[in-house]
Write a structure and sequence with these properties.
It is a single chain. The chain is about 35% helix and about 20% strand. By secondary structure, the chain is an alpha/beta fold. It has a single domain, classed as Alpha-Beta Barrel (TIM Barrel). An 8-stranded parallel beta barrel has the order 1-2-3-4-5-6-7-8. It has a two-stranded antiparallel ribbon with strand order 9-10. The longest helix is centred in the C-terminal third of the chain and has 14 residues. The protein is globular. The chain starts with a strand and ends with a helix.
Length: about 200
């Protein structure tokens, strides 16, 4: 099975059309209001309506009330939940009581989150369906990928990914690559950069 790719941070109808053209494995919608890629429920529903139904939408949250997250799942705006805050296993259990949804739990490595054994123990023992590792909360910066060898489960790799380093990123053995700023120009999704990174992943599978 080849590496998957997620285009995160869709904010415009045009972003959905780009994804429809190049068909990433996942499309991400950010519901954290401190992000410059934040979308509200109505905006997200509009993007979901345009997006090809074959592309799962991942909702990105930071310490959001669990009922709000579940509501977006139940209304079919998102089909996967990605947690970037202090959400713990109890939060995930509560979410699963409210709706049946795959959960991705994000962990920070590098300077932002450390690289000691403690963080890898939490990564490997999390009850989330899968995990995501990043250098920060959408920092757009890479970190020392050697540390990824300590992860004993499937993971999404994020942080500073672009068409220029995707080949090296795939060598880490990541289940999926999560890219946002690396396919943008002046803060907007760039169709050519999306094409290049998805084509690179497909060619290297």
């Amino acid at each position: 099975m080849g590496c998957k790719i997620k285009i995160c941070g869709l904010i415009r109808d045009y972003d959905a059309l780009i994804c429809n053209t190049y068909m990433p494995d996942y499309a991400g919608l950010v519901f954290w209001d401190k992000s410059r890629r934040y979308v509200n429920k109505e905006q997200a529903a509009g993007i979901r309506a345009i997006l090809n139904p074959a592309i799962p939408t991942v909702g990105v949250f930071v310490d959001a009330p669990v009922k709000e997250v579940a509501a977006l799942v139940k209304e079919h705006i998102i089909s996967i939940v990605q947690l970037h805050g202090k959400e713990d296993d109890d939060y995930i259990r509560e979410l699963r009581k409210l709706c049946s949804v795959p959960v991705i739990k994000a962990f920070r490595l590098g300077e932002a989150g450390g690289s000691g054994d403690d963080v890898f123990e939490r990564i490997n023992q999390s009850i989330a369906d899968t995990v995501l590792v990043d250098s920060g909360a959408g920092s757009g910066v890479t970190f020392d990928w050697e540390a990824l060898k300590k992860i004993k489960r499937e993971y999404f790799l994020a942080g500073g990914l672009s068409p220029d380093n995707v080949k090296e990123a795939m060598k880490t053995g990541a289940f999926a690559l999560d890219v946002s700023s690396g396919v943008e120009t002046d803060g907007r999704k760039d169709a050519d950069k999306v094409r290049r990174i998805i084509q690179a992943v497909r060619d290297l599978e």
